Structures are given as C-alpha cells and as structure tokens.
Amino acid sequence: MKRLRRIIFWCHLPIGLLGGVIVLTMCVTGVLLAYEKQITLWADTRNYRSAAPSPEATRLPLDTLLAKAREARKAEPTAITLHSDKSAPVEVSFGREGKLFVNSYSGTVLGEGSAGVRNFFRHVTDWHRWLGAQGENRNLARAVTGACNLGFLFLVVSGFYLWWPQRFSRKALRNITWFRRGLPAKARNFNWHNTIGFWSAIPLFIVVLSAVVISYTWAGNLVYRIVGETPPAPRNQTNAGPGAPKTSSEKSEPSASLDALWSRAEQQVAGWQSISLQLSPSADAPLTFSIDRGNGGQPQKRSQLVLDRKTGNVIRYEPFSSYSTGRQLRSILRFAHTGEVLGVIGQTIAGIVSLGGAFLVWTGFALAWRRLRGWKEKRAKKGLEQITVSSPALESAVD
C-alpha cells in the first residue's frame, strides 16, 4: 500500500510541475469567465431597454427590423434574437462582424452594445482555450491545453487518493478538511492544499472531465460508446438533413410571412425566454428556430424547431427529451464545464472550484519548492558529515 502511494505521489508531483503554469492560466481565466453571459448581456442592453409606448403597442414586423439593421451595417444579417422581456431590444447578428441592437417598437438602431466588455471576454477566452495563440499556432496551443487537461484530471483523482488518511481519526480529518490558523508556511501550504482539494474534488473532477471531453474527439465519442451508442459522424461528413436548403429548378412559391412563422415558434414552447432564428440567403430554405427556456447554457431547456418557409408546417421539432442518452450526456457535459447547466448556482460553483484549482497549483508549487530545498539541504548536510568522518584518516595520511 505504501509503495503504491509512493508511486502515485511521484507521478502526481512531476505532472503538477510540468503542467502547473498552464493549469493555473486555465483556472484564473475560468474564474474570469464564470459570469460571462450575464455580464455581457447586462453591459450590452443596460442602456437600450425601452418600454412600449402604449399598452396596445406591438413590435414592428421582423422584416422591417432586419431592414433597419441591414441599412445601418451595410451587410446581410445572419441571425435575429428576441427575448420574452418586452423592454429588451432585438438582437441582429452579422456573424463575426458583431451585432446590432434595435428598438423593437420604433426600429431605431441603438448601437453595438458594449464592444469593450465583449472584447475583454474574447481575449480571456483566447487565453483559456489557446493560451492567447492566434492563427495556425492555435493547433499547437490546443494540443498543449488538451494534454494539460488530461494531466489535471489525473492530479484531481490521484490527489484525492493521496489525501485519504492512512489512519482515520478526528484530529487527522480536521487537519486536512478545514483551514487552521497560526501554522508555519510549510504546514499552512499543506493544510490549504489538502483542504481545498477535499472540498473541491467532486465539482472540480466534473469541470476537468468535461474539459477533456471538449478537448478531444475521442473523449466525446467515448461518451456515446459508454452508453452503447454509435458516435455521430463529423459535421463535414454528415448528409444534408431535413433542415438543409433544397435545391430545385421549380419556380418558387410565395412564402409565409416571417412574423407568422415566428408566432408559430413562440406557440411551440410555453415559458420561452429567448428565440433565435438563423437567417439563410435562400428564400426556399427551411427556417431553424432555437428556443430557450433557460439562461442560454442549459441544454435541457433548449429545443430546435424547423419550419417550412412556404407553408409554415413543422419539418422537425427536437426538444432535449428527444435526444438519445449519449447526446443528452454529451450536451450536459459541454455546459457542465462552465456550470451553466445548473444555472447561476452551477456557474458560482464552477467559478469557486476554478479559484480553488488556482490555489491548488500555487500551494503545490510551494510544497514542491520546499521539498526540493529540503532535499538539497539534506544532501549538503550528508556530504559535510562524510567529509567530517573521513577527516582523521586524511590527517593521518598527511602526517
């Protein structure tokens, strides 16, 4: 048992030292990204909210709102999003070029929101995923962060094993499960390392495990295989489904109005919070609505509705409950990484354990440094003792 513990420790220590700086970077940026969606939404819309001019007032037609945004940006919109909050502005997206916010009652283009806040989170995300790398260097950075996620997962699991007391007692448990005051530096670092590791072990395991699933295709496929399902083919290999544009030489028929189709989407799910529509340049392409009853990061509250552009008939409706077990689990793991799957509470837990992960790295480095320094001092002392022991023989030889 002691030998196994020693082997695991000497695997735990070098992996922590090798990947510690990268893990620290991902933990710190993870803390900064904890409430990204809420902060960005607040910063974007805090000055753009507007009450209806009268109780009978209704929003302008969607085609009118899109035309206003198209004219202001001189570009073709790629998506439009409406919120259930009547005072919230309409969001019109232009792909990577950003978005515009439009007053739903007057059609006034309000602005681009808080570009500074979004740029800040974009840079933090770049560091979290790719260590700030750009272009082709991101492939190498992704490989590094993926390997460090694997190493971090081993550190979490092996750390819990190493934490497990060899002899259980109330005093032993108290020393490694709660913070103690008045300890010298080495004992304090040991206490913090064990205590933080104990309380964050389970949620940190979920956060890091989901990071591995996100980092590696084989890990994502493994989720499906564990529940006995065949992993889906990569997107670029999938055939065009019922939601794909149809190519036909037949003459186009008149299409249903966009507002009528949007009303159909609103009636599909009660209690929706936001609905987004991906816009297609083809007038014959079906319309795909993403309907969300949550905060945007809860897959169990999201569904997709595909309507025929001409007739308004439902081509496909996919609530979360219609997904296979593997797809449900894969979707949950994606948002378990940020904690969003459990709402604000989950985001808070993910943020706290990410901060705890940063302290684990810091205290781990401190303990390793003290161990190295102690080893050097011990070696120097042993060398001095050997010189002292050999001194009488050396003096005799000189005489």
Amount of beta strand: 5-15%
What is the residue-averaged pLDDT?
88
Main sheet: strand order: 4-3-2-1-5-6-7-8
Silhouette: elongated
Please trace the helix and strand order, writing H or E for each element.
Answer: HHHEEEEHHHHHHEEEEHH
Structural class: alpha+beta
Radius of gyration: 29 Å
Short description:
The chain is of the alpha+beta class.
Detailed description of the structure:
The protein is of the alpha+beta class and 399 residues long. It is built from 11 helices and 8 strands. The chain has helices at 2-32, 36-45, 62-73, 115-130, 137-163, 170-177, 185-215, 217-226, 258-268, 325-336, 343-398; strands spanning 79-83, 90-93, 99-102, 109-111, 274-278, 287-292, 302-307, 314-319. It has an 8-stranded antiparallel beta sheet with strand order 4-3-2-1-5-6-7-8. The protein is elongated and about 95 Å long.
Summary keywords:
eight-stranded antiparallel β-sheet, 10% strand, alpha+beta, elongated, 11 helices, 8 strands, 399 residues
Topology diagram in text:
Layout: H1 2-32, H2 36-45, H3 62-73, E1 79-83, E2 90-93, E3 99-102, E4 109-111, H4 115-130, H5 137-163, H6 170-177, H7 185-215, H8 217-226, H9 258-268, E5 274-278, E6 287-292, E7 302-307, E8 314-319, H10 325-336, H11 343-398
Antiparallel strand pairs: 1-2, 1-5, 2-3, 3-4, 5-6, 6-7, 7-8
